[in-house]
Amino acid sequence: MGYLTTTALLAWCTFFAVVAPRRPRPLASMSFWFGLILNEVPFLGIYALVASTALAAAQGDLESPGAKATATVAAVTAAGLAVSAWRGLRTDQAVGRALEQGLGTGWRERVHVPLRRHRPWARILLLPGFFWRRDVERIPNISYGDAGRRNLLDVYRRRDAPHNGPVLVYFHGGGYAGGAKNREARPLLYRLAGQGWVCISANYRLRPQTTFPGHQIDAKKVIAWVREHGAEYGADPSRLFVAGSSAGSNMAGLCALTPNDPGFQPGFESADTSVTAAICLYGYYGHYFGDPPDGPPPPPQPQGYIHPGAPPFLIAHGTKDARGTVEAARNFAGQLRRVSDSAVVYAELPGGQHSFDVFHSPRFDAVVDGVEAFAAWVLAPQRTPGSARQV
User: Fold this and answer.
1) What is the mean predicted confidence (pLDDT) over 87-99?
2) What gap in Å lies between CA 278 and CA 253, rounded to an integer?
3) Spatial CA neighbour of 268 closest among 341, 219, 211, 310
4) pLDDT in tens, 21-55
5) Alpha-carbon span 173 to 250, nearest angstrom
6) Residue range 197-214, pLDDT digits in tens
7) Is residue 132 classed exposed, middle or buried when 0-12, 13-18 and 19+ CB atoms within 10 A define those classes?
8) With contact defined as beta carbons under 8 Å apart, do 373 and 383 qualify?
């Protein structure tokens, strides 16, 4: 019974990881909740399947009635998990193509900092949920506003206290109604901090405590806090990247497109909230499944704020995202490329689901490498004239 139960559960989750139906909405929700873990770290499913089969063999359960059918299901499940793993392994190719398309084929010639050559396979295969690094410290729960715990931020920096390090400000997801600053994108935060960056992950007010533009005002407050206090933590606030996941992606994009907008800075209008570049991971971009693709985006979305002076963007979105459509992400990247004078890197991740940044995985660590390369290109002192714009 244990072998049958384990195999059935893994088969169920593998179906939603690999097939990942995006419509209708109830199936899309099941794709997210049941498929997320095995989509990102299918190796854990393979380990569980092998261990369950070995235990069943040791106990003689493979000779029981129905064992042949269960073994067939296990074999199909293992094949599905292999497909999921293969999709994740292909992400580095997708990210590489996106960088070449967005930055130009000669982008590496302008990057003069060492980039990671190999992903952390030991962590990916054995400890995908382990993020701590000996050389990085997290300074938690620093207040940046007057909204209590919803206005707290964490600082990630190298333990030897970097000097004039670039800054990454990150906003979590949660549909503006949930989430917290210490759940997502931690492989990215720890990686950049280990490279000398100062990374900020911030909470912000949620519904029903506030609604738009309250979330966005908090995001601007974080940037203003970095401008005022970043140097105390070893940061160079003149090199400030903003990033986010899901709802936080939309907030990051809107921050990048509305520098110093007094409508989002009540009481701190004089603060400099401009940013160097934006990194947007699996955002909504105005459309959920079931919405008309050409309908107007709701107010908190960045599409309505695109302008030629936008900073460089890196957008990453999964083809199997069950919550924010890949079509909308593709459309957002296309609009940016048509209007912006800066670089736009759009990476479409094969098989990627919503929340692909929760674990160390082949997919997200390839994205982390892409972010590091993109940031190095943006911060490079010289550019070839006209190379940034892609149509």
Assistant:
1) 97
2) 6
3) 219
4) 988 889 999 999 999 999 999 999 999 999 998 88
5) 9
6) 999 999 999 999 999 999
7) exposed
8) no
Instruction: Output the six-digit token pair for 170.
Output: 């990150």
Among residues 206, 197, 208, 243, the alpha carbon closest in space to that of 222 is found at 243
Do 230 and 153 contact (CB within 8 A), yes or no?
A: no
Are 204 and 150 spatial neighbours (Cβ–Cβ below 8 Å)?
Answer: yes
Q: Give residues with Cβ within 8 angstroms of 107, minimum separation 6.
A: 99, 100, 373, 377
Residue 344 forms beta bridges with which residues? 313
Structure tokens at 222: 């974080």
8 A C-beta contact, residue 324 and residue 317: yes
Catalytic residue, from 215, 287, 354, 360: name it. Answer: 354
> How many angstroms separate the CA atoms of 310 and 276, rounded?
10
Per the listing, tokens 């989509």 go with 39
Choosing from 246, 249, 355, 361, which is the catalytic residue? 246
pLDDT at 290: 43
Q: What is the pLDDT of residues 138-181, one digit of tens each?
A: 999 999 999 999 999 999 999 998 899 999 999 999 999 999 99
Q: Which two three-digit tokens encode residue 20?
A: 């990942």
Asked if 112 is an active-site residue, the reply is: no
| C-beta of residue 247 within 8 angstroms of C-beta of residue 174 | yes
Q: Tell me if the pTM is above 0.85.
A: yes
| Residue 89: band (very low, low, confident or very high) from pLDDT cuts 50, 70, 90 | very high
The total of other beta-carbon atoms located within 10 Å of residue 375's CB is 25
154 carries an active-site annotation? no
Catalytic residue selected from 61, 321, 357, 369: 321
Active site residue 146: no
